[in-house]
Amino acid sequence: MKKYDKIKRLGHPKTEEVLENSDDELVIVEKFDGNNFRVQLNEDNQLIYGSRNVKFTENGDPLPPEECNNQFVDVAEYVRENIDNEKLKELEEQENQKLVLFGENMVKHHLEYDWEDAPQWILFDVYKVAEEEYMDYSEVKAVAAHLGVEACPVDNRIHVENFKDGWNPDKPDSIVPRSKYRDGLAEGVIIRNEETKTKAKIVTEEFKEKHRQSGGNHGEESLPDDDTMSFVNIYATDARVRKHIKKLTVDEDKDLEMALMEELPMRVVEDIFEEEMEEIVRTSKSIQFKRFRSKVADKCVKLLRAEISKNAVKGGSSE
Predict the structure, then answer these.
(1) d(Cα 245, Cα 265) in Å, to the nearest integer?
(2) How many domains does the chain contain in total?
(3) Cβ pair 11, 278 in contact under 8 A
């Protein structure tokens, strides 16, 4: 099953094509603060599903919702109840190829939504397997309508030239609308260039601040202050490390144990350089990369131990 491609922030070198051609049309849709949940039909016309990294299947058959990871039980039940297999098969026959549906599992992370009103799963993309490309967003909306599910709301359709005229990178919130399902701004937006099939994201300062607050040092000793340590403090945040602990244990269903250190530090380092390389290169006078990796690993050890201890306390208190 196709894994959804990561979307970079606007301004990242990998998003240059999004705003490259002045005449291209952009579709701007709301970005939600949930997690990725994908859906597809198998060869037996059964609905199979998974998180971004893990398929909840056994021998090719779907796992019952109650056997999925905790965060995905409700969404697995939701898609089974709300997506008609025959309707999805009709769409695949029309396209003459398999389709993978990608949607947002609306579970609580940093932002509060109107949980009574928000659907459990909101479609945001459809991948055509044989053609190896994503549908235009008008097609995504049509798929949602055919299946009777919600698609991410469109905030605007605008040409690149007009977008550039009004875009201020120092004030990203100015382009972010109020959310359809919360009392406040959306987490951000996804900008889709329908001509180049490229995408970029913009996240509000409010969301960034909530993310920082939820992943602060919580009284832990800060790292020494030199050039290399400054970059560790800036980019190897508690939130970033915990994000990858969560991906390993929730999305990839691995045990919460110190053995995760075999993968965790490099996951964090790769994520930092993938997302922040432009800023690091622009602002770094000297950075010792070997030491950087070592100190990131030191931080991962501390936070992983803390998460294991916290989980043990929760387990003990529930018995």
Answers:
(1) 10
(2) 2
(3) yes
